[in-house]
Amino acid sequence: MIVAKQRQFSYQSGYARQQTYQPRERIKLKKSRLIKISCFLSLFICLGMAIALVSHYNRIIAANKQVIQHERHLNTLYEEKEHISIQIAQLSALKRIETIAINEIGMYYPREGREKSLVATTN
Q1: With 90 as the cut, is the pLDDT of residue 99 above it?
Q2: 31 is in which domain, residue-wise?
Q3: 28 domain residue, yes or no
Q4: Structure letter (DSSP) for residue 101
Q5: What total of structural domains would you count in the chain?
Q6: Range name among 2-11, 70-79, 103-112 with the lowest pLDDT average
Q7: Burial state string for 35-68 with b = 16 or more CB within 10 A and e = fewer than 16
Q8: Is residue 18 a part of any domain in this protein?
């Protein structure tokens, strides 16, 4: 029969070596890497949202400028309309038409016995 020699192993030396090996640091490295990636992604998302917000406000400002321009144009049109309506009222006044008819065209009022109609004379 073969008898094996008994060997003595020093378990403590291997155990001491295992104590210096720390798998937790690897996990921490993975967590820190994960934290870095998540911070980068959140920063990228915030940057995208900031760009979108600035773009949106630029559109609003451009629309407000157009509204202001249209309001100014509308105000000038209202002023022009009022001026034209005043001119129409002045030009269509019956007294003015009467003076033009008598002085420039040569019309006159009918006399008592005549037919009541306006008569124009040719010059």
Answers
A1: no
A2: 23-105
A3: yes
A4: I
A5: 1
A6: 2-11
A7: eeeeeeeeeeeeeeeeeeeeeeeeeeeeeeeeee
A8: no
Task: Report long-range pairs for 28-33 (Cβ below 8 Å, ≥24 apart).
Answer: none
Q: Is residue 50 part of a domain?
A: yes
Range of weakest confidence among 17-26, 43-52, 62-71, 85-94: 17-26
pLDDT tens for 3-48 read: 666 766 555 554 555 555 555 555 545 678 888 999 999 999 999 9
Q: Give how far Cα 70 sits from Cα of 65, 76, 78, 83, 117, Å.
A: 9, 10, 12, 20, 52
Q: Is residue 110 part of a domain?
A: no
What DSSP string runs through 2-61?
--PPPP---HHHHHHHHHH--HHHHHHHHHHHHHHHHHHHHHHHHHHHHHHHHHHHHHHH
pTM (2 d.p.): 0.47
Q: What gap in Å lies between CA 51 and CA 43, rounded to an integer? A: 12
Tell me the residue type at 25: E
